[in-house]
Amino acid sequence: MTSDALTAAPPQGRRLDKRRFEWNTSLLLLPAGILIAAVFVYAVGYSFYIGLTNLSLLGPTAVVYHFTGAANLSRLVHDTFFLHSLWVTFLFVFGSGVVGATVIGLALALLMQKALAPIRLAAAAVAMIAFMLPPVTIAVVWYAASVPQGTFARLFGNPNSDPLFSAPLLFVSLANMWSLVGLAMLLFVAALRNVPSDITEAARLERAGAIRRFTSVTLPLLKPTIVTSALLMTLLSLANFTIVWLMTGGGPGTATSILPVYSYQQGFQFYHLAYGALLGNVMLILTAIFGVGYVKMARGKRQKGGSS
Amino acid sequence: MFTKSRPRTFRAKLACTATAITVGAVALAGCGGSSAGPGKNVLTIAYGSTFVFATAALAPQYYGNIAREFEAAHPGVTVKLIPIAGSPSDIVTKLSLLYRSPSTAPTIAQIDSGDVGLFAEAGYFLPLNSYVSQTSWWPGFPQVVKNETTFGGQVYAVNQGENVQALAYNKVDFAKAGLPVPWHPRTWQDIINAALTIKKKLPGVTPVWAEGGTGAGTVGVELGVGNLLAASSNPTVFDAKTGKWVIDSTGLRQTFAFIHTLAADGLNAPVADLFNPNAPGDSTTYMMNPGAAIALASNYWGASWLENQAPAWPKAAQDIGIAPLPTVNGQGSGTSSLITGWDQAIYKGAQNPSLAWQLLDFMMQKKNLLAADNDGEFIPPDTAYAKDPLYLNFGAPFQAEFAALEPYATEWPGTSNLPIWSEAFQQATGALEQNPSTSVSAAVQTMKTYISEGLGPSDVESQP
Question: What is the pLDDT of residue A27?
């Protein structure tokens, strides 16, 4: 506690944590700056421009296209399938990424704390394999398991039932969660190792039960990791086009048409490249909002933790 | 902190070097795409390498032979191949990206007939009227085949092979169920009645295979339930007079009602099989295993069973019968089918168009065309070739029966926005197949909503 208080005290004289920018370092930053400008700023700017044109993949406006102002934006706000897609995306990202993968990852990490070293290593390896498998493999494995005669149909006792098409969003979400849970678990295993044993020991001496120790000691200390994990899972799920596309193609109907799928459909199946780009831009903005929000949240917690 | 003690010049040098390397790399990367084309004596052919021909080994072999023989006959000319793997929509996507730059645009491309119009509208294809008029083979193409690749009077591509659909039925199942063999359904009700009998008498057999859902894209629906609409009493998809897309008609309602009956009476195959993105290719095996008594089948099924598929199904020649798909009430000519195929087109910016045409003409010569049609399990576009033993004996007896349907076949409009109309049609038919409680009017509502949203309410109309 005392060491915390010392480091938190403002230093005298020139503040070392403010105004650290020196102009001559900008030369060293230039290569990175050029790279970012070339592969990110230019690309994103171009994509925003394309989103406001009538460019199509094929047809009369494939080569000769022009700026159409707010026409695509007005279409976007009146597009009920876009709103539906936003809702499906939210369920998919929040359900499988943020809640599912993070909560189960944490639970697995807690369980592994008590396990014998060899079991812990084996479990970590298995969970990591799921994360490292190519999305194509994950999609095929889950597709095979969730169609009639597959693993789930047999587990449910009716081999001819069709779990994937009965609850499509649930099964693509489960597949996504399965692929991410290993990464979340690793994050939490590392974070749990950093929970000081003297604090839990003190709590134990105060006769705090296991649940109380978890909610009052472990969980608050894990907050930054939870936020980091939630951010990572959001971004990884939001970009997870492959699993959904291969398992259901966005269907049946529009049941699993998450934004990346809808954007691809508009751009490459209906040839409305501009509208597809606009949907991509919406995803980019959403990702940025999530990112900033989480970073703010993480920072807020840390400052609060430091001052108390 | 200790960087302060380092001499400033070192840092400056380091920065300059890094900058120079980065700028150089960016500049080099920028230069990569600016070459103007492959050169006057280099021809490139882009083709579907896994989907279009019967097996993944056949297409590279066929185009490899074409390239070798053409190069031998034209010293100094190089023919390069651009294989494109994947489904029809993968092929179209890849092609449309290749055409965006003259340096990657293929001189000749294989393309499905439904998309020729869109590539032509984009200005990618060379009009071929002056070339085809001088050939001996173009007059032998039926008008419906010529129409597929002709837009505004300009011929933009040449058909390489066609697909038509009919009903395939298992004679053994029919005999066991007490149904007549040979079978001649006159109306759609005859099909339903036969399927109901199969279901009652042979409980383990899937009565019908009629593909649907959104998985396989426009080509999937043209090889599947789209044929029902073509056989209905109003098959119009796009009203050429008003320039509007049809979202409601008697024809659509008849089609939806038929699919609704299949689902409600449990006559169709499981949706997991019907909705599979690879269903157009996988469906050939369905009549063999697990077995369907009646299937909405394409002409390539026969050749697939008897010639190309592993394991082959030699018994199909005796056990499977073909019946033309009847029109809904037996009206008109009594039978109907959609026709779709794969075409060859020349790039408008080709550096040596006459040499490109020579290569295309070489592919259209009888020996080469029939080789492609057998490898691709197509019906030859030229009606005279369809009577050739080279074609008829490959997958007999089915080839002759399917080729006889070509004159009755109709094509779908190959114009912009067909993908949206067809996605809506697939969603509507898919919903009917998946959920028996979906009503016909709910399916029509799906068409209305999806197409009006996608195209704007002024581009759609209802027809009687």
Answer: 86
A28 contacts B14 by C-beta, under 8 angstroms: yes
**Hey, are the CB atoms on A165 and B434 less than 8 Å from each other?**
yes
Q: What are the backbone angles phi and psi of residue B46, rounded to the nearest 5°?
A: -100, 135
pLDDT level of residue B27 (50, 70, 90 thresholds): very low
Nearest to A30 among B19, B122, B453 (CB): B19
**Scanning every residue of chain B, which has its alpha carbon at the shortest distance from the alpha carbon of A268?**
B93
Q: Tell me the shortest Cα–Cα distance from A177 to chain B, in angstroms.
A: 23
Mean pLDDT on B206-222:
81
Confidence band of A300 (pLDDT split at 50, 70, 90): low
Residue in B98, B118, B458 to test binding to A, most A beta-carbons within 10 Å: B118
**Mean pLDDT of all residues in chain A?**
84
In the predicted model, what is the mean pLDDT of residues A156-164? 82
Q: Nearest Cα to A58, choosing from B225, B112, B240?
A: B112
Residues 6+ apart with CB under 8 A from A115: A123
Partner-chain contact A34 B119, CB within 8 Å: no
Task: Say if the Cβ atoms of B271 and A165 lie within 8 Å.
Answer: yes
Q: From CA B33, how far away is CA B261, in angstroms rounded?
A: 55
SS3 (DSSP) at B209 = strand
- Asked if residue B291 has pLDDT above 50, the reply is yes
**Nearest Cβ partner of A59 from B15, B92, B416?**
B416
**Which token pair is B268?**
């169709």
CB contact under 8 A, A30 and B96: no
Per-residue pLDDT tens for B102-127? 999 999 999 998 889 889 989 999 99
Q: Inter-chain contact B416–A60, Cβ cutoff 8 Å? A: yes
CA of A39 vs chain B CAs: smallest distance (Å): 10
Nearest CB to A269 within list B18, B89, B434: B89
- Give B420's contacts (C-beta < 8 A, 6+ positions apart): A270, B450, B451, B454, B455
A63 contact residues in B (CB cutoff 8 A)? 122-123
- Judged against a pLDDT cut of 80, whether residue B170 lies above it is answered with yes
Q: Are B450 and B424 in contact (CB under 8 A)?
A: yes
Instruction: Kindly report the pTM of this predicted structure.
Output: 0.79
Give the residue-averaged pLDDT of B170-188: 95
Nearest one of B265, B230, B168, B211 to B413, comparing CA atoms: B230
Among B19, B118, B417, the residue with its CB nearest the CB of A31 is: B19
| Domain annotation for chain B: domains and CATH numbers | 13-163+341-408 (3.40.190.10)
d(CA B58, CA B381): 20
Distance CA B323, CA B294 (A): 10
As a whole number, mean pLDDT of residues B33-37 equals: 47
Fold of A82-258: MetI-like fold (1.10.3720)
pLDDT for residue B88 is more than 50: yes
Nearest to A31 among B18, B93, B454 (CB): B18
Pick among A28, A55, A265, A269 to test the B interface (most B CBs inside 10 A): A269
More confident residue, A214 or B428: B428
How far apart are the C-alpha atoms of B64 and B156, rounded to whole Å? Answer: 25
Residue B144 to residues B150, B162, B318, B408, Cα–Cα distance (Å): 10, 11, 32, 9
Within 8 A by CB and 6+ apart from A96, the residues are A172, A173, A174, A176, A177, A180, A237
Domain range summary for chain A, segments of one domain joined by +: 82-258
